[in-house]
Amino acid sequence: MTSQLWFTLLTAAVAAERLAELAVATRHTRWARARGGVEHGPGHYPVMVAVHTGLLVGMLAEVHLAHRPFLPYAGWAALALAVGAQALRWWCVATLGKRWNTRVIVVPDLPLVASGPYRLLRHPNYLAVAVEGAALPMVHTAWLTAAAFTAANAAVLAVRLRVENTALGLASP
Fold first, then answer.
1. Which one of 6, 87, 156, 170 is separated from 13 by 20 to 30 angstroms, measured CA to CA?
2. Which of the four pLDDT bands, split at 50, 70 and 90, describes residue 1?
3. CATH no. for residue 150?
4. 172 in a domain, yes or no?
């Protein structure tokens, strides 16, 4: 099996994981709205979805169309970072429980979570997103996609962090 095929299977697995996240987020949205949860800043959400979809499509296209090589020393390190980012993301999901969402939905009268990775960082999930978005394309040296995603994600996160911090009554970091 070629490294490009393995990379395609890895990308498919990440896409399946994203669909699982959306299923979890949909359940959590229903839970939050049933408790008076209010969504904040929904206008940035379609852009965020487009950026994350672009990551997966872009890295596959770059690897296959530009014939990017798999460089073992860099590829395995990038894969380890991507797996670590996934572990951090799911630690965030587990820590937030039903409060975790892909949207910014705040349920009134619930205190901020200060356990798990939130003991260490205010927004650990966004660290996971940034690391994964840079590392995942680099598993197969799709450096253009890694750079483009990093820039686009920084722009989305600038909006998202402002929205989320305002919604939670936090000062911007």
1. 156
2. confident
3. 1.20.120.1630
4. no
**How many domains, the chain?**
1
pLDDT at position 84 is: 98
SS (H, E, C) the chain: CCHHHHHHHHHHHHHHHHHHHHHHHHHHHHHHHHCCCEECCHHHHHHHHHHHHHHHHHHHHHHHHCCCCCCHHHHHHHHHHHHHHHHHHHHHHHHHHHHCCCCCEECCCCCCCCCHHHHCCCCHHHHHHHHHHHHHHHCCCCHHHHHHHHHHHHHHHHHHHHHHHHHCCCCCC
Q: Does residue 12 sit within a domain?
A: yes
- Domain membership of residue 173 (yes or no) is no
Mean pLDDT of the chain: 96
Which structural domain range is residue 117 located in?
A: 3-167
